[in-house]
């Protein structure tokens, strides 16, 4: 996941997750409708999803590109 995608998902989940927008974005239509009708599973599902989305975003931004290790041939 790129930094832009992670940030977009975190913002949408925090701001509009109460209505299930993030579930619709992930093509989880059934869960999106459930979130929409129950207001984010009565708030509990939204809070859990918000924490997960923010944690994933922080993880993506902290991740450093690992340098590729070259294989050494034994003579």
Distance between the termini: 40 Å
Shape: elongated
Order of helices and strands: HHHH
Multimeric state: single chain
The amount of beta strand, in percent, is under 5%
Q: What is the CA-based Rg, rounded?
A: 18 Å
Give the biggest beta sheet.
none
Short description:
The protein is mainly alpha-helical and 75 residues long. It has four helices and no strands. It has helices at residues 3-16, 21-25, 29-42, 44-62.
Account of the 3D structure:
- By secondary structure, this protein is mainly alpha-helical.
- Helices cover 69% and strands 0% of the residues.
- Helix 1 (3-16) packs antiparallel against helix 4 and helix 3 (29-42) crosses helix 4.
- The longest helix is centred in the C-terminal third of the chain and has 19 residues, at 44-62.
- The protein is elongated and about 65 Å long.
- The chain starts with a helix and ends in a 13-residue tail after the last helix.
- The mean pLDDT is 88.
């Amino acid at each position: 996941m790129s930094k832009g995608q992670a940030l977009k998902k975190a913002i949408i989940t925090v701001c509009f997750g109460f209505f299930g927008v993030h579930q619709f974005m992930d093509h989880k239509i059934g869960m999106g409708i459930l979130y929409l009708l129950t207001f984010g599973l009565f708030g509990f599902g939204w809070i859990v999803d918000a924490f997960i989305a923010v944690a994933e975003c922080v993880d993506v931004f902290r991740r450093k590109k690992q340098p590729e290790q070259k294989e050494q041939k034994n003579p």
